[in-house]
Design a protein that fits this description.
Layout: H1 7-20, H2 30-37, H3 41-53, E1 57-60, E2 66-69, H4 78-86, H5 110-126, H6 129-139, H7 147-153
Antiparallel strand pairs: 1-2
Helix pairs in contact: 1-2, 1-3, 1-4, 1-6, 2-3, 4-5
């Protein structure tokens, strides 16, 4: 259940933590990040493109290529990661998903949601990627016990179509 952020945002935060834990100057291939975080590589590549467009991650092509953080981890807030994936409008999103929810036309949960949303936005703005890295180092792990095993065992989506065989001229 994703009441606050999409699954893509959750994966973006996990991938950013992985990058922040890498030594300065290390270019991490997407498949390495996927293996280290238990994330699906194809979906992760799409998320990385969003983070690159937002300037939070830099890409390097060719031999030794990969991605690294686009700026220091202490200058990347969780809010910036959320905005890179969800867009700017996520801060005003209705908890029930209604487009017409406002002070003038509130949804059934508006009065309870607005203060919670404001607190959540404050926490996301004040929490840097570096703060999460420090906590991960203190705990000596990023994910709870068994999370990588569960992710590896999860069924993967099957391709919608079969790959075509190429004809050879020989």
């Amino acid at each position: 259940m994703h009441l606050i952020a999409s699954h893509a945002t959750e994966l973006a935060i996990r991938a950013a933590i992985h990058l922040a834990l890498q030594p300065t100057g290390k270019h991490s291939p997407t498949r390495e990040i996927a293996a280290g975080t238990g994330l699906p590589a194809a979906y992760l590549a799409k998320i990385m493109r969003m983070l690159i467009r937002a300037g939070l991650v830099r890409a390097f092509h060719g031999p030794g290529g990969g991605v690294e953080l686009g700026r220091p981890a202490d200058s990347i807030s969780l809010a910036s990661l959320v905005r890179a994936v969800e867009g700017e409008a996520q801060e005003e999103r209705c908890i029930l998903g209604l487009t017409a929810c406002s002070e003038a036309e509130p949804c059934l949960l508006h009065a309870q949601w607005v203060p919670l949303r404001a607190e959540l936005c404050r926490m996301l703005d004040e929490t840097s990627l570096n703060m999460l890295v420090k906590e991960a180092k203190k705990r000596q792990r990023v994910l709870p016990e068994g999370e990588l095993a569960r992710a590896a065992a999860a069924p993967r989506a099957k391709p919608k179509h079969k790959a075509r065989k190429r004809k050879t001229l020989l």
